[in-house]
Design a protein that fits this description.
This protein is mainly α. It has 14 helices and no strands.
Length: 272
């Protein structure tokens, strides 16, 4: 993916510059989607400054295309990298404005538009939880749940919105607010279907691993990290949260889990 992205970006941007009228708007939508993909990849490998630049360009292309759905998805991408950089207040403001803009276009809302709106509510809930704004997080999750009931399981603009992802965000927000036992109770009652995108499954397993580690259940924590490794070895190597959790487990590991933990440490390139 890293080798393919530069050419993809160059071709998409060239097309946006070349065409006019409806063709240009179509090309701008493709360019925005390409920059959103670049945002995801660069964030995943820890290149946060490049990720922020890609997210900003995704927003610009979507606005130029005059596409409310794409603009909402691009704002979600921008909020994601701002959040990863610890700029929670800025992320909340970006998402708040995007929700307001989409709410102005709900008279003829398609399922895709509703899904984007729902995804923005989920990210807003996570950011509210990071600032310990429990009331806002709860309200946003309730709104997202209502939207998810209307649209079902979707993956418009790679946002993977629906009832399952809403449940996963309830777990994530509980983790963010330090409610480990509540998060674990939710996680153990949640079935993660293979149909949802791998990114969401990885996040679920990582959140569960963090909760189990917080409860000193090392066996369960390693089990969840093994699931992450089975689906995406790259996640262990590049995810800051996964590597930090592995370091914590390594420092306190009991002999009984060493045989299962050591291969994960090697896969993540964490010194044993």
């Amino acid at each position: 993916m890293g080798q393919a992205l530069p050419d993809l970006i160059g071709e998409a941007q060239a097309a946006a510059n070349q065409f006019r009228g409806d063709e240009r708007r179509a090309a701008l939508r493709v360019a925005s989607a390409t920059y959103q993909l670049a945002r995801t990849w660069t964030k995943r490998v820890g290149e946060y400054e490049l990720s922020l630049l890609a997210a900003d360009r995704a927003v610009s292309c979507a606005l130029d295309a005059d596409d409310p759905d794409m603009a909402g998805a691009a704002a979600w991408n921008l909020g994601m990298i701002l959040s990863a950089q610890g700029q929670t207040a800025e992320a909340r403001e970006v998402i708040r404005r995007a929700i307001e803009e989409l709410r102005r276009c709900l008279a003829d809302a398609t399922p895709a538009r509703l899904a984007v709106l729902g995804g923005l509510h989920l990210l807003a809930a996570t950011e509210a939880a990071r600032e310990d704004d429990e009331d806002a997080a709860h309200d946003l999750l309730e709104q997202a749940t209502a939207i998810a009931a209307r649209v079902g399981e979707t993956n418009h603009h790679r946002m993977a919105f629906g009832p399952t992802n809403t449940k996963l965000h309830r777990i994530s927000t509980a983790v963010e607010m330090g409610r480990t036992s509540n998060a674990l109770e939710l996680a153990e009652r949640t079935v993660v279907e293979s149909a949802i995108p791998v990114e969401r499954r990885l996040t679920f397993h990582l959140d569960a691993a963090r909760c189990y580690a917080g409860c000193e259940n090392q066996v369960a924590a390693v089990h969840m990290l093994t699931k992450v490794h089975g689906e995406s070895p790259e996640e262990l190597r590049y995810s800051t949260a996964a590597r930090e959790l592995l370091r914590q487990l390594h420092a306190t590991a009991r002999p009984a889990i060493r045989a299962d933990l050591d291969p994960l440490l090697r896969a993540a390139d964490v010194p044993e």
